[in-house]
Amino acid sequence: MTRTPRHITSPERRARLALRHRLAPGTRAATPEAVAASLVALHGTDPATVYLTVGARLADSSSTVPETARALYEDRTLLRMHGMRHTVFVFPAELTAVVHASTGLAVAARERAALLKDMAKAGAPDAAWLKEVEGALLTALARRGQATAAELAVDEPRLREQFVYAAGKNYEGVHTVSTRLLKVLGVEGKVVRGRPLGGWTSSQLRWAVAPEHPELDVVEAQSTLLHHWLAACGPATEADLKWWTGWRVTDVRRALTTIGAEPVTLDEGPGYVAAGDLAPLAGPAEPWAALLPALDPTAMGWQGRDWYLAPELRPALFDGSGNVGPTVWWDGRVVGGWAQRPDGEIVWRTLDREGVGREAETAIGAAAERLRGWVGTTRVTPRFRTPVERELAG
User: Fold this and answer.
1) Which residue in 20, 62, 210, 255 has the fewest CB atoms around it within 10 Å?
2) Cα–Cα distances in Å, from 349 out to 91, 355, 379?
């Protein structure tokens, strides 16, 4: 007898989000590692986003900077590396082998082939030459512990060599061997990002040799990663899963079958939750407010976002490439945006046509003060700027 899939409403999805992403006050975490485990991956393209994502979810936000730096650079319990959709993320260390096998290997093969093709078109040296340079780079990096591309080029001068990319095209440019090679080695899991040259908002990061990890079966790794994500972010549609992982739809469907994902229906149509996750989930006892950073993994977690983000708000809150800026949340919905002014003041604006009411404004104001309290005098400017953030920051 075929069982009718349970329907999970948008309000219930928002309740799950609040509890599982540690956004309701009573669910906040004690450590950055707990935050990362709850979200599976923290967006790492903009280094400041990692800290702001953690700070929004820590019970003691005053410890955000030292504790996140400890996890990233001392204990190495969190690692910054390329992952889904060829994007830089910060993962719990125990998931790095899973991400590498499930996603990184396929991307790495494409990246190395593209580099060799571009070098050949430009008349640059061949694959054997590149292999020699790669070996010298890894040897120098192991000796130094951590280093910038410029420091590595002192040990291996061939890293400074340049070649023209897309000659004759309107996007023609000049690439340095070190830039492209380090990117390839990153997706191959041979190197990872290390400490920044400056403070916690600095995007100038050193490189380090990647920790050893076991080589996993690709199919098994894909199933493991999908289970982690569904447990943290489910329910989700097949389109959400394909978008978030960057996999082929056949890989997504196979992994769903392997992990015994439960079919459900959503307001948007068919969806899935992790096995055993069908029981109704009560929402937080009281409404909650949060100021989440640009590229926060909650705001960027699904391809279909209408259940928490009204379509009419998107032009103001996203840049032209689909990157979300800083967002203001009230009780599971995005209701506006925020920014930091040059004097450090955190300013915000609601964009919801229906308004948010006095209770929401009070809670959002408290979240802004909480954020300013631990950010202090540090100036945070998102790498990908959006219309509302630019206007408020001005």
Assistant:
1) 62
2) 32, 11, 19
